[in-house]
Sequence to fold (328 residues):
Amino acid sequence: MPPTFRELNLTRVTIVRTAREMGTLRSLWESLYREGSYTIFQNFLWNLLALSAFSSREQAFVVCAHSPNGAAIVPAAVSRRTSAIQFLGEELFDYRTFLHRGDDEVLKSALAELAQLTAPLEIVAMRQSDAHPLYSGMTRQYFSAAPQVCRVDLSQNQFVSMHPRLARNQRRLGRLGFTLNVHNGDSSRLIRSIYQRKADQDPESLFRDKLRVDFLVNAAAITPDVFEVFTLEFDEQLCAALVTFRDGKLRRFYTGWFDPAYEKHSPGLTFIHEVTRLSLEAGLDCEYMTGIQPYKMRLATRSETLYRVRATTHQLAELGKAYLPLTA
Fold:
């Protein structure tokens, strides 16, 4: 089945619902992605994979609008559980937004198409830096924050001097024989093992779900250079692991795990500290992703606010009628 499209004045609107149809958007999607300040969660291949991997849980309704004056893609899907409109990525994408350039009228046209689904929209989570004037016509509530360590705030040496005990812990783990190793996304067995260990430790873990683990293993395989997996290993024994994403000049810390047998050495926090130090040394900023847990805030130098955005069907339809200026 070809994608649905229609003309609105000079704007062409296309709606795709399947992976095959999604392929027709790749060129434009990747062009918008390159031009904007988007996160890895707006990567075309990851969204295509999410559309396929979670089709039993969310029905894609990806809207593309373009005209001579601009283009926009809204990576929407309808949850089969709640019937609400969300963005692709099930529970695994931390940051969600649309892709857009040029005239806001084109973006309004794309968002207004969601009204035909007669369901509420809920975006979790939107970064403060992704806030757009069109969101002012929706309900925006504080959701959480993303703690960060940025080179502009301090040097590698200053960071280490602030946390001497963690540096000592790292040296002690080294004396026990553990060495730091780095793997890329081709290490499928290792990545699956880390998520299995996470699931075994926590009955509430997202990763007790095979579909989610399969998604991450497959995302790593198709974008191996994005995945940077840090481990503390001795022979075949794993003490701690961090799954991170390389996103330009930023390293995103996505998943951490440590062996509780070494808890007295605080291997989880110690390893996050060490990988942060190495990142600063390599000229990279770090982000600890969604959540203001104490261990993150202990290391962070700043954080970015994250919002939950909601819109009713009426609010979505109104986007097609009048531009709403940004309000505080």
User: Anything to note?
Assistant: The chain has eleven helices and 14 strands. The longest helix spans residues 267-281. The two ends are 43 Å apart (CA to CA). The chain has two domains: 4-143+306-318, 151-300.
